Amino acid sequence: MVCDPPLKRLRITVGLLFCLSPLIPKALTAAADDTPWPTNGWTRAQPADEGLDSKRLQQLVTQIREGEIPSIHSLLVVRNGHLLVEEYFDGHKADELHTQQSVSKSFTSALVGIAIDNGKFSGVDEKVLDFFPKLEGIDRSHPQRQKMTLKDLLTMRSGTDYHERGDDSPHFQLNRISKGWTEFILNRPMVRDPGTHFQYDSGAVILASAMIKQRYGVHADRFAEEYLFKPLGIKQSNWYRNREGHPHTGGGLDLRSRDMAKFGLLYLRQGNWDGKQVVPKTWVKDSLSRQVNFEPPKGRHVGYGYWWWVLSPDPNGQSKQDVYAALGFMGQHIFLVPEHDMVVVVTAGARGEEERAIFKFFYDEILPSVVRDQQKPNDYDKSACRKWSKILASGCARLTPLSKLGAPKISRPRPTC
Description:
alpha+beta; Beta-lactamase; 3 domains; three-stranded antiparallel beta sheet; 35% helix; globular; disordered C terminus
């Protein structure tokens, strides 16, 4: 029998890829498949198609819908680039622009990384005062203020007295004034050396928009439209701004839940979007690293990156890789789970225990919905590979259907939304 060389090469290639695919980390193979990027709409699938327990997730949705878990506005689950769950509650809808609260900070972090990559910011060690060489009315003489760097802002360690505890806190004072946010933040009293103490500080993030304005001539909202939202196909957004046009980058962004999920997928894909490096890969890595370690952990919060939270791993996971999150007041969440190639989005109007309930159902219901592979990570299908070995050893053989060799069936195209 005479073999057609191209067909022989095809069989060999397919066979090797099938045998070796379990040895390749899922996070790397997921981005390389033919799943459409959701720039113009998400590709839908059933949870079971992507290895999730449909019944368990449906039970969670029912609990929310019946009010057992109150004040949830939306729940989206994405795995392997497919939108598996998209539910809205209490009259909220898919096209609604929903408050992001402090999830806005993680979007602003991406803008800083882009600005560094473009060369407009020299790096995280650049001094904060160097961004404002001509701004008047600032006390530049304080030695601690002179030492403050961009990294100190990104890690919530500015050294100022800025905090958000109570109606008379600096943050609530800023929210009540209609202009002069930059001067208000830069003139906060220094209470410790920068870079030494973690204190949650929205003022540091709001200052980043003024930094972008100094270097680009436009504020963060317009910068985001051009460099972040446009590549991802995010066409609807809104920012709260003061009278000077300064957007509240600490908590003033409104977006659709589907677009929150796009941003999560961007970070799961290390800043790459359909072949374009939107956010530098190194910036994504640094932003999700434990720049600040919480010892002891603050509940599920184990550390802080560059305006991203680092959370404890999936308790039943194999890799023990950290979970990452953009978190906002009243229950706004973007969870990233690299081990399972998963993004989970929650929007809400929750307070107190209701907010804590979101963490509970994420760890107790959504993560356990992942159908665990009973095989060891490197325990590939030996029987199927033995069949392929015989084909390869023969040099040529008739084309055997992949289904008879244990290969997964190819799914039909799925609708987009």
